[in-house]
């Protein structure tokens, strides 16, 4: 019997579900504020019925400014898909696009 997590995942990402092979996920998250969310997802990924897995490639030290894009791209290319965790800190940023354009 499939879990609800697998059913929901297969509904939105059917091409990533195979009978015997889990897909590798790249997890993007706010290291300073949302590591707990990543840890919860990591625990879920360890379940035998999880449709995906990931290795913890969390960056402990910032990548050099000159190479960070290529460093991250090379990690993403080793994965089948990307999961972006958006925690409450990011949700509460409340950007003001008009302010960025110099308008009030």
Description:
This protein has 104 residues and is an alpha/beta fold. The protein contains five helices and three strands; from the N terminus they run αβαβαβαα. The chain has helices spanning 4-12, 35-45, 68-77, 88-91, 97-100, and strands at residues 23-28, 52-53, 81-84. Strands 2-1-3 form a three-stranded parallel beta sheet, covered by helices on one side. Strand 1, helix 2 and strand 2 form a beta-alpha-beta unit.
Name its key features.
single chain; 104 residues; alpha/beta; 3-stranded parallel β-sheet; 12% strand
Order of helices and strands: HEHEHEHH
The strand line-up of the biggest sheet is 2-1-3
Compute the number of strand runs: 3
Low-confidence stretches: none
Largest sheet: 3 strands, parallel
> Which percent range fits the helix content?
25-40%
Number of helices, where a helix is a run of at least 4 consecutive DSSP H or I residues: 5
What is the general shape? Answer: globular
Query: End-to-end span in angstroms?
Result: 55 Å
Structural class category: alpha/beta
How confident is the prediction overall: mean pLDDT?
77
As a percent range, the share of strand residues is 5-15%
User: Whole-number radius of gyration?
Assistant: 17 Å
Topology (SSEs and partners):
Elements: H1 4-12, E1 23-28, H2 35-45, E2 52-53, H3 68-77, E3 81-84, H4 88-91, H5 97-100
Parallel strand pairs: 1-2, 1-3
Describe the structure concisely for a colleague.
The protein is α/β, with parallel strands linked by helices. The chain has helices at 4-12, 35-45, 68-77, 88-91, 97-100, and strands at residues 23-28, 52-53, 81-84. Strands 2-1-3 form a 3-stranded parallel sheet, covered by helices on one side.
């Amino acid at each position: 019997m499939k879990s609800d997590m697998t059913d929901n995942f297969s509904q939105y990402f059917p091409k990533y579900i195979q009978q015997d092979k889990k897909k590798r996920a790249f997890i993007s998250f706010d290291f300073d504020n949302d590591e707990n969310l990543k840890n919860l997802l990591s625990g879920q990924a360890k379940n035998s019925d999880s449709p995906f897995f990931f290795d913890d490639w969390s960056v402990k030290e910032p990548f050099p400014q000159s190479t960070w894009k290529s460093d991250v791209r090379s990690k993403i290319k080793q994965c089948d898909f990307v999961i972006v965790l958006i925690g409450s800190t990011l949700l509460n940023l409340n950007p003001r696009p008009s302010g960025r354009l110099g308008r009030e």
